[in-house]
Design the sequence.
C-alpha cells in the first residue's frame, strides 16, 4: 500500500461524517504536519467500515488497530501516543458490551465475525482515490484475465455457473441477462450501472461506490466485453456527491492507466464510461424508467417485453445491472464460479449486503452469506434490540417488502425463503422494530413513501395508493371502521394486480403483511380507538394521575391550547375535549404524572 509507513484509514461514510468524521480527518492531518510526520504517515478517507453505530471509526494500517467513536479532540492523542510512541490508545478501542472486554482487531468483534465481505471486500481497506491501491489488491486483474484468456461466451458461462443473481431487488440471474443481451443482434450495445438506490434507509450501493469505485468500473468493462458493448453509463442520484466525486477520480485514473478507453490490454477491445445524474425519484431505479431518464425523457416505466436486453438505451440491447451485482464480478472471475457458488444457499449464491437499521444495537452495513438466519443478523451481528426491549418485527425489501415476525427469525434467508414468509430480499434495507412500534403506523410510513414516489402514469397506483394512505390516516386518527380494513384489502389486491411497474405492484405489500401478522392491532385502532403502543398520537388520550401530580405547572405552561388547568402545588387536570394531542405536556412532566393510556 502506497509509500507511507502508516496509513490512518478514517471512515468517510455518511454516518461517520455526520459525527464530525471530517473534523477528525482535518485534525489528524494538521497534527501530523505540525509534528513533521506527514511525509511518512497518510490519512485516508475510506469507504464505510459498516459499523456505523460506533462511528467515527479509524483503522491504523499495518498495525490492524480499530478505534471507535473517535472525536476531533482525540486526534492529538492518536498521533502522539500510537503513531509516534507506538502505544495504543486503550480508551478508544471497542469494548464488547457482553464480555466487557476491549477488542483491537475488527476480525474479533462479534459484529464482524459472522460477516463475509465479498462485495465490500475493499471498503475501508483501500484508498478509493488511488488506483494503485486497488491494483495492489488484484484490481483490474479480472479484466486482464477475461480480455486475454477468455472468450465472451466463457465469461458469461462462468457468471452463470457462479449462480450470481441481481442484487438490485429482482434476483434475476446475471449470467442469463448477459447471455440474452449478447444474443441480441445490433451494431451498438450498452452497459448501465444502476446506482439510483431509492429505498429509504438503504446505502449499500453508495458505500461501494464511495469505498471501492474501481471494482464497479472494472466489472462494467468485463460486462461490456461479455455482451459486446463498448460503452457504459453509471446512473447515480445527484444526492450522492462523494460517490460521484470518487467515480470521477476513478474514471480519470483508469483512463490514464489505459484501463478504460481504447485497446485495453492491447487486445483491441474498447470500453469507456460516463456518469449520468438522477434527480432522486424512486421510480427512476426501475430499469425502463431509468433508461428513459438517461435518454432525457420523463422517468416513467414502460411495459416489458421488450426487455432492455433486447431494446434498451436508444433502442439498443442494454444490460442494466446493480452496483452490488457488479462488485461481485471480479472475485468470481479470479476465484472461479465454484468458489462463489460454494457460498450461500441452494438457489441464492454468494453474499448479500444489508443496511441494518431501526431498533437494533449495532446499526450499520453488514455483508453476510446467503442462508444465514435473521436471528443471527439481528442478535449476533446487530447485538440485539436496543434498551433490552422486545423484538416485534423486521421489515426487509423496503417499501416493496413486508414484515417478518419472531416465528420466522430462524428461516435461512435467500430470495425464495423471504418470499415464502411474505416479504422479499429487495435491495437490502432491513429495519428492525421493537414493542414500541405501531404496525399501522409502519404501514402508513411506507405507503406514504410509495404514494409520493408514484410516477402517476397508471390510475390504480396513482389514485389507489392515495386512497389507501387516506384510510390509514383515518385509522391512526381514531376515525377508522371495520369497513375501512376491508377496503384496504380490496384496494391492495386491485393495485397489485393492475399496476404497470414494480412500484405499484408491490406498494401494498407492507399494508397486507402488517394486516396479516398484526390484525389485532388494526382492530384495536378501529374498534377500541386505541393504539396498543401509544405511537399514534391521534389516538392518544392524555391524562394526569392525581397521586403523582405535584402541581409544578410546567405542563400548563407548555400546552399550546391552554387546556390544562390547576393552581400551583395543586393537582392539574386536562380538558380532553380541547386537547389537540400534541404530547408537549407528556414530554415536559418530570414527575411521570402524565400518561397516554
Ligand atoms: C420501483 C423500482 C425501483 C427500483 N430501484 C432500483 C434501484 O434503486 N437500484 C437497482 O439496482 N435496481 C432497482 N430496481 C430494479 C431494476 O429495475 C433492475 O431490476 C435492476 O437494476 C437490475 O439489476 P440487477 O439484475 O443487477 O439486480 C427497481 C425496481 C423498481 C420496480
Ligand atoms: S405502477 Fe405507479 S410508478 Fe409504476 S408506472 Fe404505474 S403509476 Fe408509475
Ligand atoms: S408537569 Fe406533571 S407534576 Fe407538574 S403540574 Fe403538570 S402533571 Fe403535575
Ligand atoms: S397533549 Fe398537548 S394539547 Fe393536550 S393537554 Fe398536553 S400539551 Fe395540551
Sequence:
Amino acid at each position: 500500500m502506497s509509500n507511507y509507513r502508516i496509513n490512518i484509514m478514517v471512515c468517510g461514510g455518511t454516518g461517520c461524517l455526520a459525527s464530525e468524521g471530517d473534523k477528525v480527518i482535518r485534525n489528524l492531518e494538521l497534527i501530523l504536519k505540525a509534528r513533521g510526520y506527514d511525509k511518512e504517515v497518510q490519512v485516508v478517507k475510506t469507504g464505510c467500515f459498516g459499523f456505523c453505530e460506533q462511528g467515527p471509526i479509524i483503522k491504523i494500517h499495518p498495525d490492524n488497530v480499530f478505534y471507535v467513536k473517535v472525536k476531533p479532540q482525540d486526534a492529538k492523542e492518536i498521533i502522539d501516543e500510537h503513531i509516534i510512541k507506538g502505544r495504543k490508545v486503550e480508551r478508544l478501542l471497542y469494548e464488547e458490551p457482553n464480555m466487557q472486554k476491549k477488542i483491537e482487531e475488527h476480525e474479533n468483534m462479534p459484529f464482524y465475525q459472522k460477516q463475509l465481505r465479498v462485495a465490500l471486500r475493499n471498503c475501508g481497506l483501500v484508498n478509493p482515490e488511488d488506483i494503485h491501491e486497488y491494483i495492489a489488491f488484484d484490481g483490474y486483474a479480472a479484466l486482464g484475465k477475461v480480455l486475454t484468456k477468455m472468450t465472451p461466451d466463457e465469461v458469461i458461462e462462468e457468471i452463470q455457473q457462479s449462480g450470481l443473481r441481481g442484487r438490485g431487488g429482482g434476483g434475476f440471474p446475471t449470467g442469463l441477462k448477459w447471455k440474452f443481451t449478447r444474443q441480441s443482434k445490433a451494431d451498438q450495445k450498452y452497459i448501465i450501472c444502476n446506482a439510483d438506490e431509492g429505498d429509504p434507509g438503504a446505502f449499500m450501493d453508495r458505500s461501494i461506490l464511495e469505498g471501492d469505485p474501481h471494482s464497479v468500473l472494472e466489472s462494467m468493462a468485463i460486462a461490456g466485453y461479455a455482451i459486446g458493448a463498448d460503452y457504459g453509463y453509471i446512473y447515480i442520484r445527484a444526492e450522492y456527491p462523494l460517490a460521484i466525486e470518487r467515480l470521477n477520480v476513478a474514471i480519470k485514473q483508469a483512463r490514464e492507466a489505459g484501463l478504460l478507453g481504447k485497446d485495453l490490454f492491447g487486445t483491441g477491445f474498447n470500453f469507456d464510461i460516463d456518469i449520468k445524474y438522477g434527480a432522486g425519484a424512486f421510480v427512476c431505479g426501475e430499469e425502463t424508467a431509468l433508461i428513459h431518464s438517461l435518454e432525457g425523457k420523463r422517468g416513467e416505466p414502460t411495459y416489458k417485453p421488450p426487455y432492455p436486453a433486447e431494446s434498451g438505451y436508444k433502442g439498443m440491447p442494454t444490460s442494466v445491472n446493480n452496483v452490488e451485482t457488479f462488485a461481485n464480478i471480479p472475485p468470481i472471475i479470479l476465484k472461479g464460479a465454484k468458489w462463489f457458488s460454494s457460498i450461500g444457499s441452494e438457489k441464492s449464491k454468494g453474499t448479500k449486503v444489508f443496511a441494518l437499521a431501526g431498533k437494533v444495537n449495532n446499526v450499520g452495513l453488514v455483508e453476510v452469506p446467503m442462508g444465514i438466519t435473521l436471528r443471527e443478523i439481528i442478535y449476533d451481528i446487530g447485538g440485539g434490540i436496543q434498551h433490552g426491549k422486545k423484538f416485534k418485527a423486521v421489515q426487509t425489501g423496503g417499501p416493496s417488502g413486508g414484515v417478518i415476525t419472531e416465528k420466522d427469525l430462524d428461516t435461512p434467508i435467500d430470495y425464495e425463503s423471504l418470499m415464502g414468509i411474505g416479504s422479499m430480499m429487495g435491495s437490502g434495507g432491513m429495519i428492525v422494530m421493537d414493542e414500541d412500534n405501531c404496525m399501522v403506523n409502519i404501514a402508513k410510513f411506507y405507503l406514504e413513501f410509495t404514494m409520493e414516489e408514484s410516477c402517476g402514469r397508471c390510475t390504480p397506483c396513482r389514485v389507489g395508493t392515495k386512497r389507501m394512505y387516506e384510510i390509514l390516516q383515518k385509522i391512526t386518527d381514531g376515525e377508522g371502521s371495520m369497513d375501512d380494513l376491508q377496503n384496504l384489502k380490496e384496494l391492495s389486491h386491485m393495485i397489485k394486480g393492475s399496476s404497470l411497474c414494480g412500484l405499484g405492484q408491490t406498494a401494498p405489500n407492507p399494508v397486507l403483511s402488517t394486516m396479516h401478522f398484526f390484525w389485532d392491532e388494526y382492530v384495536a385502532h378501529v374498534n377500541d380507538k386505541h393504539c396498543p403502543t401509544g405511537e399514534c398520537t391521534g389516538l392518544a388520550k392524555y391524562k394526569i394521575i392525581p397521586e403523582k401530580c405535584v402541581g409544578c405547572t410546567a405542563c400548563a405552561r407548555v400546552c399550546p391550547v391552554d387546556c390544562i388547568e390547576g393552581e400551583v402545588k395543586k393537582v392539574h387536570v386536562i380538558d380532553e375535549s380541547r386537547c389537540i394531542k400534541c404530547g408537549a405536556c407528556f414530554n415536559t412532566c418530570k414527575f411521570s404524572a402524565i400518561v397516554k393510556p
